[in-house]
Amino acid sequence: MGDHHAFRQLVERFHGRLLATAMGMLRSAHDAEEVVQESFVRFYRAINRFEGRSELGTYLTRITMNESLKVIRKNKRWKFRLLSRDDPDSTVPDPVEVIKIQPMETKERAACIREAVQTLKPEFRNVVVLRFLNDYSTAECARILQIPAGTVMSRLSRALEKLGPALKHLNEHA
After folding, report:
1. CATH classification of the domain holding 119
2. I need a labelling partner for 66 at 20 to 30 A (CA). Which of 2, 18, 127, 142 fits?
């Protein structure tokens, strides 16, 4: 009984952070919630293998990033199947987007930023989401993604380069 209570507390403590991570990676609130649930299930099933070499939040975030990447790959395959049909009217519906609004930002501005981030390849998107949307340090991002800190910085630089035109456009209209 105590184990279930402790796990429930763990879910309550980390759910918001993991949901923000999944939403940063995915455009669908439904997919993000599914990813978070799957992340907790995966952790629960493998709890005996958690060695405590990283913080629990870091470990759970890593699972959530992996699950998000699985959904992205699955959606790409599904989108390709839909768009490869001979029917020119077949399109992939744009899923409902949940926006985490920062203070002092309008919904439109936040939506534009989220849309721009979604155009990045997953390896660039994940560092932007972790570093800028979830406020992890470069070292924490490196641990979560299991890549060197220099790679995190390089990917951030390249991501910001790619986001430059969209962000410049936003600054002109601010």
Report:
1. 1.10.10.10
2. 2
